[in-house]
């Protein structure tokens, strides 16, 4: 990709707010800059919504709701299918755009567009299978008709780490169910979602069904919308801290809530595992998105008899990963999202080393332009290290030894989070025992990636509420209604 391509894809994106099917400037005329994390340079400026803009977007969603709910499921499915196709047709430009605003390597950005599009295909298929029930009352004399209806206008808030997929994972089921929405992407990465608005409109989505607002100060814009009572649902993906705050705000009008929050994934390697497979699994679970993923392996527990060999092989693989600007060919590790993210990773590594961890590879930011941190492996990370309690959100693999199955299950569950766990073992009985004992919504068994649009993604404990994807993903956007019929 040339510099001209980069300029062209940024230029092509609308930088205003998408409200009621139209592109509009922010009411107060404010904008904010979007930065390339690989260079620290400004890519462009986008509209900075005010509370007034937020309200206009929600009003549009509310006005569009009755007609959209009445649209035949097949018509909603067709819009999603066409959007799926357009995402594929434009994959090169969309991937480059994502790399520029977020930093992930081009190959990963392409992978995310495919993953994101798949939510539209999956939910196009679900849209026409929304079922109900019919039943005779146990005592006779009446019948129960059970139907499922769209929840109503939704507020959708997404993070910066998967700028397209975290949006389509919400928009797919919302559109399939017949819900209208206001979506607010993260200010670091608004461009992918703005590009998606054009695709949805081109695919035939009626005005007002999806509205997109970009904003730097989310609280004052979103809180009045949450508290207005006009929206019926909040679906949020982001940190546990913000999720907790939004859940409190939702309490006032008892909004339906779906929360996809932070993680602290344990990655467990038993001594009977295939070590090559476990190393590749660790690379996948740790290095996807430079470690900036809620599903990232955050604590790697390795049975003590194999930890030296595992550590050696992992460090060798990690050290060989090319780091650089995501748009450059061959790069597999891009920059972190911003300076604060880089500072956090540096602090967490320094803390672990202070507490006795040994650096097997990496461990030192190169300095210079962009927010780069090298793939790093630490051995002997003690429980007291701060990184055992916090999301590292960077390319750092902390290894901790363990002796017994009971000990590692207790260690793995010793966290407020419960999103995903990974287990590597060739013992079937142990695999089942451990997978059942782990307190997480998902388990990767001998595999380092669990995300799949056709599977129910989500966490327990303080990692969230509800599920996205799978056959249950659409339920989050449907209300059950029971109609009692006297016969
Ligand atoms: P974040 O700081 O919680 O922000 C997420 C989104 O919420 C952003 O759009 C943010 O906008 C917005 N936001 C923040 N405060 C808000 C408020 N008071 N009212 C309304 N909106 C508000 O998280 P992040 O740093 O973007 O993303 C990383 C986090 O997301 C990690 O914890 C990661 O584990 C989690 N995550 C979870 C999943 C999952 O599926 N479980 C997937 C991806 C990421 P501003 O930036 O403008 O505040």
TrEMBL record:
Coiled coil: none
Residue ranges of domain Aldehyde dehydrogenase in the record: 23-483
Keyword terms: Oxidoreductase
Listed Pfam families: Aldedh
Protein name: NAD-dependent succinate-semialdehyde dehydrogenase
Family: Belongs to the aldehyde dehydrogenase family.
CDD domains: ALDH_F5_SSADH_GabD
Catalytic machinery residues: 260
UniProt source species: Mycolicibacterium agri
Keyword Oxidoreductase among UniProt keywords: yes
One GO MF term attached to the UniProt entry: succinate-semialdehyde dehydrogenase (NAD+) activity
Organismal lineage: Bacteria, Bacillati, Actinomycetota, Actinomycetes, Mycobacteriales
One GO BP annotation of this record: gamma-aminobutyric acid catabolic process
